Amino acid sequence: MVVYNILEKAIVYTPPKNPQPGELLELAKKLNTFLVMTDREINKVTDRDLKDIWLLVHNYGTDLIMKRQELKGPIQAPTFKLPSDN
Q1: Which pLDDT score is estimated for 51?
Q2: DSSP string across 13-70
Q3: What is the pLDDT of residues 62-75, one digit of tens each?
Q4: Which residues contact 64 (CB under 8 A, 6 or more apart)?
Q5: Per-residue CA distances from 32 to 20, 29, 70 (Å)
Q6: Do the beta carbons of residue 38 and residue 15 sit within 8 Å?
Q7: Calpha distance 47→45 (Å, rounded)
């Protein structure tokens, strides 16, 4: 019996015990240059994953809040006028 071994490239990743989300995002950005996803693989990404990525990229929304405050000024609490008892 003759057996042929065909070399295939693979990336092996062993995550640390307590990975931080920001560190994982930076790693994903680096790996992005090496990986290509098919449409089928892209469709497997869940909405929750996309939301988590959005939050990380936008610094949990604080970047957008700061931009809004810069454009409109500080956010003021609404004031209410109580009806008089007349």
Answers
A1: 86
A2: ----SS--HHHHHHHHHHHTTT----HHHHHTS-HHHHHHHHHHHTGGGHHHHHHHHH
A3: 766 666 666 666 55
A4: 58
A5: 18, 5, 33
A6: no
A7: 7
Total count of residues recorded for the chain: 86
* Rounded Cα gap, residues 67 and 46, in angstroms: 28
Note the pTM of the prediction, 2 decimals.
0.51
Could you identify the residue written with the tokens 């909405």?
A: 47
- C-alpha pair distances (Å), 31 with each of 40, 42, 67, 75: 19, 15, 30, 40
Task: Find tokens 């994953």 and name the residue.
Answer: 49
* Amino acid (one-letter) located at 31: L
